[in-house]
Design goal:
By secondary structure, the protein is an alpha+beta fold. It contains 8 helices and 6 strands; from the N terminus they run βαααβααααββαββ. It has helices at 12-24, 27-35, 39-47, 56-70, 74-87, 100-108, 111-114, 141-157; strands spanning 8-10, 53-55, 119-126, 129-135, 164-169, 178-183. It has a 4-stranded antiparallel β-sheet with strand order 3-4-6-5, with helices on one face. It starts with 7 loop residues before the first strand and ends with a strand. Bound molecules: zinc ion.
Amino acid sequence: MPHPEVPSDRGEFYGAVAEWVLNAYDKDRYQRFKETLHPQLAERLENADPAEWYPVEDSRVMYERIVASFGKDSLVSFIRFYVSRAIHGFIRGLVSFIPPLGLAKRALALWNRFHSTGRPEIEMIDKNHGIITLFDWDYSPIHCKVHALWFAELIRTAGGKNPVVEHTHCVHRGDEFCRWEVGFE
Ligand SMILES: [Zn+2]
């Protein structure tokens, strides 16, 4: 696929949303959720090409619709589902033999497969603490929340207990980059 002109995410995101709604709720709820979306977005739930690029702006709208329809805690449930789906896909096999921050590092190394912009870096402080910085990504506060949920869920998946992810720097609060401090037991 050619590199997109606007900041974009891969279409596999839309299929994950559809699967999650059907899994966590039911067909009726899924239909009602679809009706809250612009027709073009609704159509992507079923027809997005997983390998194609779609604007980051649209993923922001989708995350906001998820929260509006299913409540603020629904993002936790969605990201849990999404990470477990990803674990059975692109990072399958890594989970059983690498430590939590190692899994986060391996997953972040694949960032540009899924996002056309943004450059994550991870610094290991010790076995249970790390700092994740995301450069060149300035789209919406809801994406910051989603990224934090991904980090926590990756750590939990790799056996880290009680992950705490603190958003210490944010482009939406005037910082040059977004940064999260990650710790677990
Ligand atoms: Zn941020």
